[in-house]
Amino acid sequence: MTGIVIARPDDSWPAQYDNTAHVIDGLLGELAQRIDHIGSTSVPRLPAKDILDIQVTVGSEPELDDVAERMVAADWELRPPRRDHPVPGLPTDDIEWVKRMLVEPMYRRRVNLHVRVAGRANQRYALLFRDYLRSHPETARAYATFKQHAAALRLEIGDYSDLKDPVCDLIYLPAEEWAARTGWTV
User: Could you tell me which residues come within 8 angstroms of residue 26 by beta carbon, excluding any fewer than 6 positions away?
Assistant: First the structure.
């Protein structure tokens, strides 16, 4: 068994993201259309695993592998999965959920680097989920409580993620309504 540890919010997470994004931008240059801080560490006052989630957006599917090759050449490790889970109510076409996942070089700040194609459902999901939680602190607090209870189950990371995915989807579905109502865009 593993111990998923949900840390207290750390006010330095945004600065840690900035430093890491600067390094990633230097490695990728024009390949990265945008680099975004996503996941729980990107939401103020939200407890999280002390791992930065960063999304690199590219313009086309072949560029997913171009990014992976550049990052692997810089000692990042390519990992599964090669796709995200499909979300109820969103497109079911596999192409919408393709990604590449890399983790930081050994002995560096923990990072999960998600590489996704611009305009695909999974690229939008990460950004809308983040922005919705930033705008809805009560929802973020409820999500934090769930994550702390889930971590207490001492699941393997894959099982923890599988348990968390439908809860994230339950948050995401009203986030889509919020996006339509407020004019939110990627």
Answer: none
Q: What is the pTM of this model?
A: 0.95
What CATH number should be reported for the domain holding residue 162?
3.30.460.10
Distance CA 139, CA 70 (A): 37
The answer to whether the peptide bond before residue 81 is cis (omega within 30 degrees of 0) is yes
Q: What is the pLDDT of residues 146-177, one digit of tens each?
A: 999 999 999 888 899 999 999 999 999 999 99
6 in any annotated domain: no
Number of folded domains that form the chain:
1
Give the helix/strand (H/E) hosting 105. Answer: none
Task: Give the separation between CA 99 and CA 64, rounded to whole angstroms.
Answer: 7
**Could you tell me the residue range of the domain that residue 134 belongs to?**
13-182
The mean pLDDT value for 51-70 works out to: 98
